[in-house]
User: Fold this.
Amino acid sequence: MDYAILLKFGEITLKGANRAYFENTLLRQVRYRLKPYGKWNVYKSQSTICVEPEDDGCDMEGAYGACKRTFGVISLCRAYEAEKDMEAVKKRIAELAPALLSDARTFKVEARRADKSFPYTSPEISSEAGGVILDVCKNVKVDVHDPDVTVRIEIRDEKAFISGAREKGAGGMPVTTNGKALLLLSGGIDSPVAGHMICRRGVKLEVIHFESFPYTSERALEKVKDLARILARYNGAVCFHTVSVTEIQEALIKNCDEDYFTILLRRFMMRISEAVARERECAALVTGESVGQVASQTIQALSVTNGTVSIPVFRPCIGLDKEEIIQRAREIDTFETSVLPFEDCCTVFTPRHPKTKPTLENVLKEEERVNVEALVNDALSTRRQEWIRESVYE
Ligand code: ATP
Ligand code: MG
Assistant:
């Protein structure tokens, strides 16, 4: 075996009595994520998850990437194994040092003994290993305060591990430890980012998308599924619900004041989403709204939209600027897909002068002109459901 991957978990270590539950969930998540990349031995040892390949057929880099995207992992590193014996550790350090310190001018060694029966203390291990590194790499110096690279040696129950630079993990909490929520996913930039932020807090997402066929196309729907496929990298398989709002939009056009189309449609979306959320046991809704971004996102409009539902609505982008949302969209890899030019049901019938400060009173008057309950039920009867997986699983 060339190396193992060591994962440190973050916040979940704070969870007192629930700790075992959080840790076991993370273990399960990691095992599931690794499936496409070969056979692995995944186990917990002290406060670390160790991922070891079982044979040569394992895709180490693929697995490393999957671990890096797993919520609940605060940092990770590649760790090279050695026998739990001081001479063996020194020999392995001599082999590894040139690669671990390739660009470094200064280093320090940090040793930890989880196994206190190991006959050397941590400072002794550090000093022996540091001596070997200085012998092998002629151009590096020790700097204990601000080293370019920290070489870590961990003497664990079964073996010793030697590792170099530790990378930041995805952070957050293991998915499912905070229940389920339903993400309203459009084809835009904001909602995938909002979903990612909530998923990162340990919430498993299901997705609902509203289409307006034939005004919106099959390709527009495919684009949204592509976004869900990217979210599946973080969330695991996504249960994807498609609901048609064509009949609702046609009823609104026929009966209501054009200036209210958007806000009325948003209220229908919320009602339908709440019904689906309840059926699917999702405890909250998630949207990509941000204060003031468009007419339907003024405080007045948000308040009128929100008034239709009685479960919590999470809007994690609410205080972000568009530029900040775009930055996040790039980081999570949804941006390129989001900007593909396909129509969305919200853009099919856009009022020329949308109401930016709708009052509930006026909105309710408009709603009296259509049969809200029947339209919601008809829309719900168009719901289709499918599972969307990350492409490596397909
Ligand atoms: P986004 O970039 O996410 O599309 P937006 O800035 O375009 O957001 P709106 O069109 O007002 O804003 O939509 C606000 C939110 O409503 C979206 O972030 C999304 O959560 C939800 N939403 C809008 N259109 C749809 C749709 N067709 N299907 C599902 N959810 C939608
Ligand atoms: Mg949009």
